[in-house]
Specification:
The complex is a heterodimer of chains A (98) and B (13). With 98 residues, chain A is mostly helical. Chain A is built from 4 helices and 2 strands, in the order αβααβα. A two-stranded antiparallel ribbon of chain A has the order 1-2. The longest helix of chain A is centred in the last third of the chain and has 15 residues, at 65-79. Chain A is globular. Chain B is largely without helices or strands and 13 residues long. Chain B is elongated, with a radius of gyration of 7 Å. The relative contact order of chain B is 0.36. Classes of the chains: A mainly alpha (98), B little secondary structure (13). Chain A binds chain B through residues 26, 28, 30-32, 34-35, 38, 45-46, 48-49, 52-53, 56, 59-62, and chain B through 1, 3-4, 9-13.
Chain lengths: 98, 13
């Protein structure tokens, strides 16, 4: 539980701005709102599907602020050519959900 | 929150 979150503070503040710009309802974004943002990355849809599965930790079909940051973090990693992990690394889990 | 009607929670499937 003392493992630092992979999402750095500067990343988080950048992703929070995007999150807020998408007009979250009850601090949550539906798949309909997140999908076009992730599609903008030009990554293959199967990769984006895996990123969604990793990010929607409670599997409720919505991303909260921390889950959205995980999704964006993985998108940027994939864009840099890094593999999407097949299992949730401890460092990827937001501290609020450990 | 209402779950999506498709049954899948993944919008990319």
């Amino acid at each position: 539980t003392n493992i630092p979150w992979d999402v750095t503070l500067s990343e988080k503040s950048k992703y929070d701005k995007v999150f807020d710009s998408l007009q979250p309802v009850n601090n949550m974004l539906s798949g309909d709102k997140v999908k076009p943002v992730l599609m903008n990355s030009q990554l293959p849809v199967d990769i984006l599907g895996r990123i969604w599965d990793m990010s929607d930790i409670d599997k409720d079909g919505y991303l909260d602020r921390d889950e959205f940051a995980v999704a964006m973090h993985l998108v940027y990693q994939a864009r840099e050519g890094q593999d999407i992990p097949s299992i949730m690394r401890p460092g990827l889990v937001p501290p609020s959900k450990r | 929150q209402v779950p999506p009607p498709s049954g899948s929670t993944n919008p990319f499937l």
